[in-house]
Amino acid sequence: MNEPTFLRVALATPLKRLFDYLPPPSLPNNRLSAGCRVRVPFGRGQRIGMIAEISHTTDVPANRLRQASELLDESPVLDAHLLALLRWAADYYQHPLGEVVATALPAALRKGGALAAPEQRWVCTDAGLATDIEALGRRAPVQARILDTARHLPGGISPDDLQPPAPNWRNAIKSLADKGLIVARAGAVLTGDHEAYPTRAGPTLTAAQARATEALAGAQGFNSYLLEGVTGSGKTEVYLHAIARQLAAGRQSLVLVPEIGLTPQLVRRFRERLGVPIAVMHSGLADGERLRAWTAAATGEAGVVIGTRSAVFTPLPKPGLFIVDEEHDTSFKQQDGFRYSARDLLVWRARQLNLPIVLGSATPALESVENVRMGRYDRLHLPERPGAAQPPAVRLLDLRRYPATDGLSAPLLAAIREHLAADGQVMIYLNRRGYAPILMCSHCGHVAECGRCDARMVLHRSRGRLVCHHCGAERPMPTHCPECSYPMHAVGQGTERLQAALAERFPDEPLVRIDRDTTRRRGELEAQLERFRRGEARLLLGTQMLTKGHDFPALTLVGVIDADQGLFGTDFRASERLAQSFVQVAGRAGRADRPGEVLIHTASPEHPLLTTLVNEGYAAFAERALAERREAGWPPFGFLALLRAEAAQRDAAFEFLNAALAAATPLAHEGVHLLGPAPAPMERRQGRFRGQLLVQATQRPALQAFLSPWRLALEDLPASRRARWSLDVDPAELF
Q1: Other C-beta atoms within 10 Å of 536: how many?
Q2: Burial letters 76-103, b for 16+ CB under 10 A, else e
Q3: 495-528 burial string, b = 16+ CB within 10 Å, else e?
Q4: CA 37, CA 342: separation in Å to the nearest integer?
Q5: What are residue 122's DSSP bridge partners?
Q6: Which residues, other chains included, contact 88 with Cβ-Cβ below 8 Å and sequence gap of 6+?
């Protein structure tokens, strides 16, 4: 007699548990596999879940067991290795497995859809080949661009091949098809047949690059490499050579990047060099595009996968190499919901699959620096830029000596004129968008504040609005003080105000501004950066979006405005992040054969962080910062988890946190300490009051041993029903 079979299903609910079901009716047991999706009854409706286990026992009474409605997959969509990764991640980050699985799947699969079918592509016809592109471009420039792209891609084009994306491309493609200049046909699942991308040879490797590629070529099994190279030293060339070896052996490579903005230029460069189908995975894709990329990776069609944080969960049947570019970047840590670190999970996945992983950065995270020191990572060093390129000269401009007007000092303005006159390009960095961070009455001192957050409203003058950058609340810009009726004045600089100041002083120079306000539309970031690369604009102004690995060969001057805003942060990681952003933004200058210069505005030129970076470099800063962390017991010499709570009423949030503290007492482990509860630095946000409780441990196993039972106890607290709460393991931000 066959043993009964029960399905243990992961469902996207806040409960940290699996749900038991009977198999669907009339379905042979040999068709049931972990990693397959099922439709199941849940409450009064139906949900899509993932079979996590198949068991012959259950603790659910027979009269409460329900039957799964439908098996959605003939074979698992998540293999055993990927399921093991998700289970480990759910355990480590103390998060429900169902929500972890949901994070790993494209939206279409979460909703019960099928894997992607081949997409439609458009191929140039004989009539299209004979068409005068220049004449067409005068009448219909978008059509001309699409037709010219189709001419050069024998496998046909899809919207993904139009980088940056063309406006109104659907209408343009329809018009070209109506004229008989292109024709639709079914293509591969993945955009970009490798035969459509002719390859080109790369530059000659430097001695340091050659040593790094040789080390990676000799990698056997799991090993973690920290590829530490000064900005512009050619880390991408090392990646390309390592990936090419994997492709020659029939294996796939997964590359994580921190921002969507880096993806198009990296994809273009990889296509030109490798000539293989590349799957692109990031949150800016439409559901269908993401599903096609996921399917191409899962079937092995894509030899390379390039993506942002969530691409860490991409299925790969033939994995060979993992890479995390700009591994220090905080974008790899998810800040809400399932709060995982993509970098750390990819290291675990590499160990699980016995593969090498490369973590690249000019400013590595202090945890990675310590891992090298402890022998956990092997360091590969690129100390110089290729060819004649030299590191930029860095100078601090003391604002006490050179006062700034509209954010611009006289020495910086003179340097801008000098570099523009020498046909160079200039980048101005200010990590604050909007026109001004404060709107203030100079008579009574009233400041415009958000009614839902403990924050000031930011003036966006071009829109005539005050905006809260924390909750998104908006209201019209007042012209007079609501308290005393005197005029209100903008205080401080944002990118919008700086743009106006630069336009006034350099009226004949086109300027590109990059921040969240100017790049909201899809493809706008890539289009604006491409304008600057082509030299259509020689002034570039932006926020931290510009620090993420962009390469501008003609850029010779970088100006950093208001460097002091991060010097006195309360978070223990504040100095590390500031040092990384300074070094990264400075590294954009002088990357070709022309010398670069960096000017930094500061009212604190004697500050130890600035003097260390300018005089001794990032490595010296990292050594001193690690010594301070060791004394204080902060990571990587200690381990943290942060319990956050918020509620419409302050008492409800702190009632839960105090109950959580009381529940921790009988679970206490040696070396585990709880600090708080305490209000969050911004206690009120989006109309809700927020508090937090910090867990600090000397050893990671002790922290995990404490968190597992504590997490379950938190679910049962009566106060948990009156507050929204989350547990963040290895938090990237404390305050």
Answers
A1: 11
A2: bbbbeebbebbbebbbbbbbbbbbbbbb
A3: bbbbbebbbeebeeeebbbbbebbbeeebebbbb
A4: 24
A5: 157, 184
A6: 348
In this prediction, residue 735 carries a pLDDT of 63
Query: Smallest Cα–Cα separation from 445: which of 491, 507, 503?
Result: 491
Given this model, what pLDDT does residue 164 score?
56
Cα dist from 98 to 78, 79, 259, 288, 727, whole Å? 13, 16, 26, 22, 16
Please report the pLDDT score of residue 242 as a whole number.
94
**Strand duo 639-647 + 319-325: pairing:** unpaired
Within 3-147, strands assigned E span: 6-10, 19-22, 37-42, 45-55, 66-67, 70-71, 120-124
Residue 101: predicted pLDDT: 95
- Which strands sit side by side in the sheet containing 393-398, from one edge to the other? 393-398, 597-602, 555-560, 425-429, 539-542, 511-514
| Angle, helix 263-274 to helix 524-533, in steps of 10 degrees | 70
Residue 69 burial (C-beta neighbours within 10 Å; 0-12, 13-18, 19+): middle
pLDDT of 387: 64
Q: Which helix (H) or strand (E) holds 280?
A: strand 278-281
Q: Per DSSP, what are the bridge partners of residue 6?
A: 55
pLDDT of residue 660: 94
- Kindly give the interhelix angle for 169-178 and 141-151, rounded to the nearest 10 degrees: 70
Of 43, 37, 99, 34, give the one whose Cα is nearest residue 66. Answer: 43
- The answer to whether 8 and 83 have CB atoms below 8 angstroms apart is no
In 470-573, alpha helices (H): 495-505, 524-533
- Exposed / middle / buried, residue 58 (Cβ in 10 Å: 0-12, 13-18, 19+): middle
Q: What is the DSSP string of 196-239?
A: GS-----PPPPHHHHHHHHHHHT--SSEEEEEEE-TTS-HHHHH
Helix or strand (DSSP H, E) at 129: helix 126-130
Q: Inter-axis angle of helices 263-274 and 235-248, to 10 degrees?
A: 50
Specify the pairing of strand 223-229 against strand 356-361.
Answer: parallel
User: What pLDDT is stored for residue 117 in this prediction?
Assistant: 63
For 645-667, the pLDDT digits (tens) are 999 999 999 999 999 999 998 88
What's the angle, vertex CA 363, arms to CA 231 and CA 283, rounded to 5? 90
| C-alpha to C-alpha distances, 537 to 164, 424, 530, 556, 560, nearest whole angstrom | 17, 11, 10, 14, 19
Give the per-residue pLDDT at 155: 63
Please say whether the beta carbons of 226 and 158 come within 8 A. Answer: no
Point out the residues of the chain with pLDDT beneath 50. Answer: 1, 191-196
Percent of the chain surpassing pLDDT 70: 92
- Which amino acid belongs to residue 355? L
What region does 112 belong to: left with phi over 0, alpha with psi -120 to 50, or beta?
left
